[in-house]
Amino acid sequence: MDLNNDMTTRVMELLGHNDAAQIRKARQDLHRRLAFIGGSYPQVAAVAVFGAGGELLASSRYFPVAEVSIAHRDDFGAAQAS
Fold it and tell me: Distance between CA atoms of 80 and 61, rounded to whole angstroms?
């Protein structure tokens, strides 16, 4: 089993076609559901959902989420470029 593929599939199915605004509205429910998904794997510390601009939208670890952005990170920039 490929953990990354499994996690990605489960989170993408959870999010569906929701945009950032819809994800923000559902943060509390998403927090609970992401915690369930991540909790299925002892090697997963947290599951986080970031918006296209790098802003943290939802997290399995914290609710409410902090105002955090990863826009400045090199790995985020590389992911956006690909």
Answer: 24
